[in-house]
């Protein structure tokens, strides 16, 4: 069901881009689909999208949103962090600037806080 929602959002975004002046390359989005969070986000691309706010009406976050640093738990069954990263990488949040993202495989929901090695994997970055 979540994949269907993603596809619908993609269709809305694609339609908005084709009717507007957004010239993002679709190949960039496809390249990031395989492993969200594995490549740093292109900050210049997101700054351009801040000016072209055709996606703003579907955004969850507003223009006063501070920069995000995200450590995503790879084995989280409660929150789909990879899906959230894909949302940012595809430019669906024109007001979000992700300054750091990392997927920690094997971590579950709150392991970024209380895992034995959280200092090494999260705290020292």
Task: Explain how this protein is built.
The chain is mainly alpha-helical and 125 residues long. The chain has 6 helices and 2 strands; from the N terminus they run αααβαβαα. A two-stranded parallel sheet has the order 1-2. The radius of gyration is 15 Å and the shape is globular. The protein starts with a helix and ends with a helix. 18% of the residues are buried.
Summarize the structure.
This protein is 43% helix and 10% strand. The protein has 125 residues and is mainly α. The radius of gyration is 15 Å and the shape is globular.
Report helical residue fraction: 40-55%
Kindly, what is the distance between the CA atoms of the first and last residues, rounded to a whole number of angstroms? 35 Å
Give the number of DSSP strands: 2
Shape: globular
Major beta sheet summary? 2 strands, parallel
Please tell me how large the radius of gyration is.
Answer: 15 Å
Question: Residue ranges: pLDDT <50 for 5 or more in a row?
Answer: 21-32
How does the helix and strand content classify structurally? mainly alpha
| Order of secondary-structure elements | HHHEHEHH
Main-sheet strand order equals: 1-2
How many helices? The count is 6
Overall residue-averaged pLDDT value: 76
Question: Beta fraction of the residues?
Answer: 5-15%
Secondary structure: elements and pairs:
Layout: H1 2-19, H2 26-33, H3 43-51, E1 68-73, H4 81-89, E2 98-104, H5 111-114, H6 118-123
Parallel strand pairs: 1-2
Provide the descriptors you would attach to this structure in a database record.
single chain; 125 residues; mainly alpha; 10% strand; globular
